């Protein structure tokens, strides 16, 4: 049997892309929650929020989602999680191995792709190749983000003098990892002072990151390593349980705030 694809023209393909992108972009010009950063904490927060029926948009400056979750550390693609976070690997259907008491190892590619798929399946929308440029501030409350294409942001202003656009939301989540990019926009304006990440201490840091996952400034919730940078907590290195647990916590805090 000869394979025969449907007779579709080039222009129809272009229209399908432009039309569907524009429709979705217009819908998400105003949304419930914008998550900046599509690493493990941002992805799981997006998955939980979308599953709870919240309209959520994830903005990611890279072409790919997953952040540091593709590698365990030092370019080695085995992830570790400490108990009790293996329960989230179970939820995602990620196979793992018990390494010793309380420590589990999984294939990073498998874990990361399952997490991305679960977030998309739950209904979170993604804008990749889009970078945070600034925040929208209304009455001293973060009320959205200003964004531009990553390629435009990467060029010197004399080559690409292109204004960014704004997206409004009820709440914003900073899931940008060690950079804490959203929080830093507020610091640049003198609205707050962040402590910067502390030295390595895995034993303390994972609990502290989850405990401190909260609204850091009106309208802005921090999750993942952005929590460490904001509150000056110790870093934890290549173990991911707290990123997943913090993302879940961020979703809970967000849902509570939306209810009020
Ligand atoms: O760095 P990242 O994985 O953050 P996370 O969710 O997890 C941290 C761990 O990977 C690891 C660790 C603990 O185990 O130390 O580092 O806290 O993902 C952050 C994502 O945010 C994107 C970035 O490309 C990455 O995918 N990002 C950062 N700044 C911006 C951004 C920005 N200004 N605009 C858009 N995306």
What's the helix and strand layout?
Elements: H1 10-27, E1 30-36, H2 40-51, E2 56-60, E3 78-82, H3 86-92, E4 97-100, E5 103-107, H4 108-122, E6 125-128, E7 130-138, E8 141-149, H5 150-154, E9 165-174, H6 181-188, E10 198-200, H7 202-212, E11 215-217, E12 220-222, H8 225-231, E13 234-235, H9 241-259
Helix pairs in contact: 2-4, 2-9, 7-8, 7-9
Bound molecules: ligand 48F.
What CATH architecture would you give? 3-Layer(bba) Sandwich
By DSSP, the count of extended strands is 13
Q: Residue share in helices?
A: 25-40%
Our count of helices gives 9
Written overview of the protein:
- By secondary structure, the chain is of the alpha/beta class.
- It has one domain (30-69, 109-259): FAD/NAD(P)-binding domain (3-Layer(bba) Sandwich).
- It has nine helices and 13 strands.
- It has helices at residues 10-27, 40-51, 86-92, 108-122, 150-154, 181-188, 202-212, 225-231, 241-259, and strands spanning 30-36, 56-60, 78-82, 97-100, 103-107, 125-128, 130-138, 141-149, 165-174, 198-200, 215-217, 220-222, 234-235.
- Strands 1, 2, 6, 7, 8, 9, 11 and 12 form an eight-stranded mixed β-sheet that branches. A three-stranded antiparallel β-sheet has the order 3-5-4. It has a two-stranded parallel sheet with strand order 10-13.
- The mean pLDDT is 97.
- Bound molecules: ligand 48F.
């Amino acid at each position: 049997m000869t394979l025969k694809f449907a007779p579709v023209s080039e222009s129809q393909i272009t229209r399908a892309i432009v039309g569907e992108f524009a429709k979705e972009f217009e819908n998400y010009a105003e949304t419930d929650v914008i998550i900046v950063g599509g690493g493990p904490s941002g992805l799981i927060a997006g998955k939980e929020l979308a599953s709870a029926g919240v309209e959520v948009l994830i903005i990611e400056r890279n072409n790919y989602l997953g952040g540091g979750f593709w590698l365990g550390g030092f370019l080695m693609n085995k992830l570790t999680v400490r108990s009790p976070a293996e329960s989230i690997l179970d939820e995602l259907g990620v196979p793992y191995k018990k390494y010793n008491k309380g420590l589990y190892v999984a294939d990073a590619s498998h874990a990361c792709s399952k997490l991305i798929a679960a977030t998309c399946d739950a209904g979170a929308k993604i804008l990749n190749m889009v970078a945070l440029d600034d925040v929208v501030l209304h009455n001293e409350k973060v009320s959205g983000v200003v964004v531009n294409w990553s390629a435009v942001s990467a060029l010197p202003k004399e080559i690409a003098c292109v204004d960014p656009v704004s997206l409004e939301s009820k709440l914003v989540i900073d899931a940008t990892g060690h950079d804490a990019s959203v929080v830093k926009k507020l610091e640049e304006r003198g609205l707050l002072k962040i402590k910067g990440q502390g030295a390595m201490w895995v034993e303390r840091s994972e609990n502290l990151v989850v405990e401190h996952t909260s609204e850091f400034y009106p309208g802005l919730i921090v999750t993942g390593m952005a929590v460490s940078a904001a509150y000056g907590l110790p870093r934890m290195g290549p173990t991911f349980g707290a990123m997943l647990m913090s993302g879940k916590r961020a979703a809970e805090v967000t849902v509570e705030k939306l209810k009020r």
